[in-house]
Amino acid sequence: MHPNWLFGYMFIYFFAIWDSYRCSIEANKHYELAMLENGRIPVHLMRSTGIQFLEKKRPLIAAYCSFLFPGLGQLYNKHIWLGFYGIFWWWIYLTFSHFYEALMALILGHNRMVVSILNPQWLMFMPSVLGGAMYHSYTSSIEQNRLFRITQRQHLTDYYEKARIASMNGTETNSPLWMIGTFEHCTELEQALSMLEHSGIHPARIRPILMDAHADKSLSIVDQRFDRTAKSVEIGFASAIAFSVFGISLGFILEWGPIIWGLIYGFGGFLLGFGIGLLIKSKHSLPHQKHKLPEVTVLVQYQNEEEAALIHETFWRYKAITVGRIDRQHANPAL
What we know:
Blueprint: H1 3-36, E1 44-47, E2 50-53, H2 59-68, H3 72-76, H4 80-97, H5 99-107, H6 111-117, H7 120-123, H8 126-166, E3 178-183, H9 187-198, E4 206-210, H10 228-251, H11 258-279, E5 296-301, H12 305-317, E6 322-326
Keywords: Membrane, Transmembrane, Transmembrane helix
């Protein structure tokens, strides 16, 4: 152990633990205030790094990008500076650990050369960087999707409620003919509604109904804390990091070398942690869903078959889950 590295790492490490804990508590307070006050955020931001905007993400794609090269998952999530930070340090670790040279030797079948090529002091950093980048990009995607849902629900409520109130002076149509479409929260939903308005259907004739995803109101907008799969992935990442470091250490002694044993132990650790996460029962958890469930139901009044065909086609074009209709024969005048 080198004293210069030891003391520097120790002080920074403990400060990071304390400061991240302190900041998390403060961030949670602001989160609670934002939820209670129904706070709004700008959907689009123009910055020096480009145009930032809310969009649905794929958490597994983000994690896979970080697995290929840490930092790419952060760029996928539009964390521009964090992504470049991760890419820079990963290049440092690759250079000083001689990982690529050892990997090339392993591919060419020179297994005995791998241990002599690798620098264990730098190689030991890599599992935590790789696992941390995958974990951050995965969880960040989930939270961005949740923020997208919240923001879209606020927009639909505000915009169409104002249109309904403005039309109550006698301009609202009392036609009992309805087209019904169900959607997930997505950008295509807003595109569909805007296209209908552009085609001549007044916003007062559009009724978005926000569906609850769970009986518990606190879970109505899917939260990562109550998502059983997300919690299992978190435990899996933590377990994979710990096991891969242990596998790399053994690899400098065992025949197959640290790269192969690190991958084997890392993959095995993830499966073990993921399985443990699935077995842990939480007081509040989301039900397992085999298929996509509707998060928004849209009712649109139509006056003739031409409008009905237009609405029907628009719903399907913009990724509706299901589409239906209520005609005069089955309509309830109370609607």
